[in-house]
Amino acid sequence: MTLSEIATAQIQQVGRLEIPISNFENANFSVVSAGTGGLMIYRRLYSNPLDQLEIIRVDTIFRVVWSKKLEIAKGLRAVRALVKENYLFVLFKATNNKFGDFLIAAVDINSGAYTVYRVQNLISFHPTEFIITNEAALIGGYFNYRPLIVYFNFSSQKSKILPGFFNEVGELTQVKPYDDGSIDVIVSSDNYERKRCLWIKKYDAKGDLVKTTILEPGDKKNLIFGRSINIGDDQQAVVGVYGRFKEYSRGIFIARINPLGEYQIQYYDYGDLSHFFSYMKATRQERIKQRIERKKIKGKKAKFNYRFIVHEVIETKDNYVMLGEAFFPKYAYVNGLSQTRILIGYQYTHAVVIGFDKNGKLIWDNSFEVNDIITNSLNQYVKIQAQEDKIYLQYVYENEIRSKIIKDSEIIEGKAANEVKLKFDDDILRNTEFESSQLDYWYDDKLFVYGVQQIRNYSQSKENANRRVFFINKVDYK
Fold first, then answer.
1. Strands 126-132 and 320-333
2. Cα 106 to chain center, whole Å?
């Protein structure tokens, strides 16, 4: 490691947007990346007789390009949004579960003009997936714990439920679109032997089922969760977690699938990974290593059970990289009663990064301690960026962007913290609504962090020294 390597790894916050908000105003802004087209910012404004959806487009240096307000019925709520081909697509769902239809607003990010589509749907469900392809929208979710996906064609304005789904309880682990309009859907569900398998269903651009591949686990194993990536030559890799039981995982698997649907699966126990337990304190980590060695001497493997979710599988300069996060649920007892407890959130422990080749062979692993995060939903917190031969890991916590830089299994720069930069040098942060601070991808190697802040500054305004703002900062590595 050289001084020049450290110098090129500094976090730069190269721009900031502030939107003033009063203490009585809705501060629940959402932000969607439009790539080099900037950012799309939206929030709900409550009024009578109709509410409004305020939409603001800013460019990459935070200049406002346009803003407008769309009237929306009080019984509708915006549940998902994304940008595709210069359009912001906002998915609306009725708050009354008796109504199954969805509405999609397609907003031209250049002009602000918009079209509203009604997606007819007889089965009311809460959407967890929203994907836009070249000619269709896909809305995924669950009805009575059974996964389903509604396909809506923009040209014909007709909808259907994708074929090939079954009546068994399962989990949608991935809905992945491709440039040609085709879609891969991965579902985790039991087979007739009650073993948890991964069902990989490929659909063409019209929503017709083309092929189904079923990944079946080895003896005394269940495939709990997985995500896929194309690895060239019409081959596919699926990376996920497996376990003896269906809730707790014991390791990571990598499956390589050829064009005929034939596959090979390689399994790596958590104890096989060099850095999986690096988030622990040194003494506990040493005890774990000793336990692993004692088992090896006896010809056995130490078994560790974790709740773990795979978030991303990306292609790098030389190989492929998976990012996942480990967590455990936190409970509280009701009124001190020892027999009654409720889920109060999820405690994250660490992120795990592994590198593998196109044959599914594990090359290296690394980790990033994130045990300060407690959340109500299992979202991805650590973001990953591959630049040349290094990997940058970062997340936001309270008023800090925390980061780590690795090169394969080597640590180039350990865990560092950079405060979220304020607008003026003499700004003082009074209070932060930490739960709304988020970090997300923008364009190229840029990210953005956003949230709500309470700021005090007597030198800028003596009459009103306090201000409450919704902010966005651009984040880059220099």
1. unpaired
2. 23
